[in-house]
Amino acid sequence: MAETKLAAEKRDTFGKGAARAVRRANRIPAVLYGHGEAPLHITLPGHETLLALRHSNALLDVTVDGESHLSIPKDVQRDAIKGFIEHVDLLIVRRGEKVTVDVPLHLEGEAGPETVVQQELTTLSLEVEATHIPDAVTVSVEGLEAGSHVAASQVSLPEGAALAGDPEQLVVVVTAAATAAQAEAELEAAEAEAGIVKEEHTEVEGENENA
C-alpha cells in the first residue's frame, strides 16, 4: 500500500469547543502514539485526511515540526448523522515490523445453480508487515455447491501475511435456494408467529344472482 504524506500541526487545546474550532478550520483532531513514545496531539488537513482514510488500514507518513512519523489508523470517530470525521487515533509503526489489522474480505465468482451465498465475515484479522498491508483479501466462491463452506484457514492469503484470528471461523456458507413452496411455508409460519390471521373469502350462495 502506498504511503500518504500528511502535514500535521501540534495542538495544545482540548475539549469539544476546541475540537469544533479545529474542524471549522478544515482540520481534524488526532493523536499519535505507540512504541513507548508520549502521545502527540495534532491536527491533520481535513480534505487530504478524508481522502486517505477512504482506504482501510491506510499507511500515513505524518510530518510534525519536520519530523516524520509512519502510522496507521487505529480508530476513526465519525459523526453519527453527518458522517464527518471527528477524531483519529494513529498508531506509530516501524518499517519491517508486523502489526495485526482487520482486512476487508471480497467475494468473487458465481456459486453453483440454485444456491445462496452467505458471507459470514466482512473482514479477516491478519498479521502483516506494517508497510505491506493488503487493500483486501479475495475469496472465490466459483462453482461451490449447496452445503459448501469456506473457513478462515482455507482463505488464500497474500505473501507474508498470516492469519491472526480463529482458523475455524466460517467466512462463507453456501446453502440451497428456497423453493416457492418453502418460501410460502416460511411466510405462513412467520405470519402465524406474529399473530396475523388471513381472512378467508367464501362466496355466499346466490349472492351473485339477480334479485
From TrEMBL:
CC terms in the record's Gene Ontology section: cytosolic large ribosomal subunit
Parts forming coiled coils: 173-207
Annotated ranges, domain Large ribosomal subunit protein bL25 L25: 6-90
InterPro entries found in the cross-reference section: Rbsml_bL25/Gln-tRNA_synth_N, Ribosomal_bL25/Gln-tRNA_synth, Ribosomal_bL25_b-dom, Ribosomal_bL25_C, Ribosomal_bL25_long, Ribosomal_L25_dom, Ribosomal_uL5_bac-type
CDD domains reported for this sequence: Ribosomal_L25_TL5_CTC (cd00495)
GO molecular function, one term: 5S rRNA binding
Alphabetic keyword roster: Coiled coil, Ribonucleoprotein, Ribosomal protein, RNA-binding, rRNA-binding
Domain Large ribosomal subunit protein bL25 beta, chain residue ranges per copy: 98-177
GO BP: translation
Family from the record: Belongs to the bacterial ribosomal protein bL25 family. CTC subfamily.
Biological role stated in the UniProt entry: This is one of the proteins that binds to the 5S RNA in the ribosome where it forms part of the central protuberance.
SUBUNIT field: Part of the 50S ribosomal subunit; part of the 5S rRNA/L5/L18/L25 subcomplex. Contacts the 5S rRNA. Binds to the 5S rRNA independently of L5 and L18.
Stored HAMAP family: Ribosomal_bL25_CTC (MF_01334)
Protein name: Large ribosomal subunit protein bL25
Taxonomic classification: Bacteria, Bacillati, Actinomycetota, Actinomycetes, Kineosporiales
